[in-house]
Amino acid sequence: MDSDLARARAERLFKQEEQQRDGQAAMAQYQASAIAVRENMARLRALRLANESAQAKSLQIEPRRRRRT
User: Fold this and answer.
1) Distances from the Cα of 60 to the Cαs of 3, 52, 55, 66, in angstroms?
2) How many Å apart are CA 44 and CA 65, to the nearest integer?
3) Global pTM value
4) Could you tell me the CA-to-CA distances from 4 to 15, 18, 20, 27 in Å, in that order?
5) Given CA atoms 55, 60, 66, 67 in this order, what sign does their dihedral have?
6) CA 15-21-22 angle, 5° bins
7) Distances in Å between the alpha carbon of 30 and those of 26, 39, 41, 42?
8) Mind listing the pLDDT tens digit of every residue in the chain (69 residues)?
9) b/e string for 59-68 if b means 16 or more Cβ within 10 A?
10) CA-based Rg of the chain, rounded to a whole angstrom?
């Protein structure tokens, strides 16, 4: 009877430790995913700003054309 209790206790402790490891792995994966999303957003923002800047420069450089009447 004591061995059954010891075994049940050991299994319960093992499951708790396993859940803790799984939780830590899930948190690490979540944090890595969040970092990747932030880096992608920063990259896309930089591309958008560069594109907007290029468009603004191209509008300023073009001379105004006169209409002939």
Assistant:
1) 85, 12, 9, 16
2) 35
3) 0.62
4) 16, 21, 24, 34
5) positive
6) 85
7) 6, 14, 16, 18
8) 789 999 999 999 999 999 999 999 999 999 999 999 999 999 999 999 999 999 988 887 655 667 776
9) eeeeeeeeee
10) 31
Structure tokens at 34: 């969040």
Give me 62's structure tokens.
């073009």
Tokens describing residue 57: 């420069």
Token pair in block for residue 16: 């708790």
Tokens of 55: 């468009």
Token digits of residue 9 = 């206790």
